[in-house]
Design brief:
Helices cover 41% and strands 12% of the residues. The protein is α/β, with parallel strands linked by helices and 266 residues long.
Length: 266
């Protein structure tokens, strides 16, 4: 498994809502997110105004692994990047039809194509959802299997690996949006820092102060559950019944490269 840092000049992000950056608001109706933050950190580290980082983000909320492999992977290869981050499988794990062997095969197929094109790849192994969501704990075994498969594929194809499994920090309520499925801006910022370390740039400093949020057994907790059911739970169930996706009609924010320039250093 890779752990040596490199000066990648062209970076493409593949994924779903996690990589699109849902709940990390950017300009207008767009989202920022950990991948955008990672691109900026890489640009700050070794790029110049004459030679900025070329960055594309192909991620779309709601996407399954199959569509990532069939649509996003070929586009990534067309762009001829030095680095691809590939994060997927959560939406698959939340479907009743989830088949771990099938999803592991799809993920491996995508990684094989990317590595066969000579591209460095960082995979994302998602963590145990039990610590941050009681509902998600019902399918924690699926996440455990998916994480193990992702780690094995990363090892077999000499990829970098951002592995959340066992990272208790990410079970802290202060890092999550009220929908309980997506990281908030602080969570995305921390993820970008962990990603830098996973790519071998160990000098990046991890966020030290995460505020405590303790509402267990309080009126605010009860009203929070009611608000979540109305604003997030019911719409999610409705989409499953209609066989619709939150990403229907959504286009990737950076289908082609955009230049990321380093920020001024003090």
């Amino acid at each position: 498994m890779k752990n040596d840092p490199r000066e990648w000049r062209k970076y493409v992000a593949i994924g779903d809502s996690f990589t699109e950056g849902i709940s990390d608001r950017g300009l207008g109706d767009s989202y920022y997110g950990w991948a955008d933050r990672l691109a900026q950190s890489l640009a700050d580290l070794y790029c110049t105004y004459e030679y900025p980082l070329a960055y594309a983000n192909l991620a779309v909320r709601g996407r399954l692994l199959s569509s990532m492999v069939d649509q996003q992977v070929p586009r990534a290869i067309e762009l001829e990047p030095d680095l691809v981050t590939f994060a997927g499988g959560v939406n698959d794990a939340m479907r009743a039809s989830f088949d771990l062997d099938l999803k592991a095969t799809e993920l491996e197929r995508g990684v094989r194509k990317l590595r066969g094109a000579g591209i460095d790849v960082m995979l994302v192994g998602f963590g145990d959802p039990s610590g941050s969501s009681g509902i998600m704990s019902l399918i924690a075994d699926r996440f455990a299997g998916l994480n193990s498969a992702t780690a094995a594929i990363a090892e077999a194809y000499d990829c970098y690996l951002l592995n959340f499994w066992g990272m208790k920090t990410f079970t802290r309520q202060a890092l999550w949006d009220e929908d309980r499925l997506h990281l908030n801006p602080l969570g995305h910022a921390l993820t970008a820092q962990v990603a830098m370390k996973s790519l071998g740039w160990g000098g990046s400093q991890i966020v030290a102060e995460i505020p405590e949020v303790n509402s267990v057994g309080t009126v605010s907790e009860i009203t929070g559950h009611i608000r979540w059911a109305r604003n997030h739970g019911a719409p999610w169930i409705g989409r499953r019944i209609r066989k619709a996706s939150s990403g229907d009609g959504i286009e990737p924010k950076y289908w082609s490269y955009t230049n990321i320039y380093p920020r001024c250093k003090q």
